[in-house]
# Entry
Amino acid sequence: MPITLTIPEGLLSAEAEAEAFAGLTDALLEVSELTGNPFMTANVVGSIHTLPKGRVLAGGKPVDAAFVELKLPLVALATPEAKQAFIEKATSVVEKAAGGRLRREHIWSNIVYAPEGGWGIAGDSYDSAGLGQAIAASAAA
# Structure
């Protein structure tokens, strides 16, 4: 379940970047009620994109901002409440990692979904049922 955090250079230290990504991972697992599930935990992946100062924009102008994008299979975070919970937690995680150097209103998040059967892990394509089975099998192990 890829998470992409995009920020301008200098906004977060390397330590704060690691803290932010760990917090985003924990937020997804918590909201999904899958904290501790080995299959799900191993498959929360992602990247931190650090762009040169002046290349992160809001309102057409350079700004210190952060963008959190979460890509999921259709079955994940399906309810409005789950989406809202992730977005709230993600915003708080990034705001805390920035240590006062980022205004909350300059943190944007979005959630995008892969089409049914379009989720690939280790060369295998998963549909919703198959992904659910893999998660359940991991929990039972």
Observations:
- The two ends are 21 Å apart (CA to CA).
